[in-house]
Design a protein that fits this description.
Layout (H helix, E strand, L loop, with lengths): L2 E2 L1 E4 L17 H14 L3 E4 L1 E2 L6 E2 L2 H14 L3 E4 L9 H11 L3 E5 L3 E2 L16 H8 L4 E2 L3 H14 L2 E6 L3 H11 L8 E6 L9 H15 L3 E6 L4 H10 L3 E4 L6 E3 L2 E2 L3 H14 L3 E2 L2 H8 L10
Helix pairs in contact: 1-2, 1-9, 3-5, 6-7
Amino acid sequence: MSKVIFTAALTGAIHTPSMSPYLPFTPQQLIDDAERCYNAGAAVVHVHARNPENGSPSSDGAIFKEVLSGVKARCKVVITPTTGGSPTMTPEERIAVVRALEPEMATFNAGSLNFALYPVLQKYKEFKYEWEEAYLAGTESFIFSNHFHSLHVFSKTMNEVGARPELEIYDVGHINNLAQLVSEGYLKEPLYLQFVLGILGGIPATTNHLMHLINTARNQLGDFRWSVCAAGRFQFPMGVVAMLEGGFMRVGLEDNLYLEKGVLAKSSAEQIEKAIRIGRELGFEPATPDEAREILQLKGIDKVKY
């Protein structure tokens, strides 16, 4: 495809405020950054909620609604809230935003894995907020649980409200999980996959691993649309491979705090601008939000509840 859907993941639940002064976490910061990303050419923004007092990950429905409604009032971008949440949240807390707000699309994590952040503690000796060090250290014993019962509940909920699942694949076995859900009737075409590379506990961010994921998915799932996000310095190289292979690209401060080596990105919009500039050099144009809605067969912004 000549049109590429560029997604901006604004804040996530991986990085903490001490890692970058530019990491947005208040509702207003997230709304402002979403609009900047839209103006830079993003078709989709991916949203996590955070406590506006200290930046800790939150499942507060009121915060989600404030952010999503605030973004909707400012621009036409597709908004994809997380159901991944953080290591401290239950599956019920994670899916609550979809039940309440009925978004056009939401993330759907395709299987369980170790999700370890603790090695970054070697880089940071002081923290701005008390919760950060314990939060990161706790991931040494954390398993990101996405068992089949929760996958059934999540997919059933998304089907009921008409939210397109963005199927997050962290390792090759997760493709097998999705094939099972398709056979059971829980997942409907068109499937939209996102290959997540470089998480400690998941598949490494290399071209060979990405091609293995793509080929395995083609063999097991048939036709699908797909995107790539990769952690840290692998963000842009893996995104380029994705575009060349017919996929889409996600950037943003959730996945990578830097614009280039040693230079912190001041917003996810800077990364969107860089990604689109690279894409255009390769002959690709950014899809508009409405083009993304058509490509992914989304229900439309007029059918959400925020």
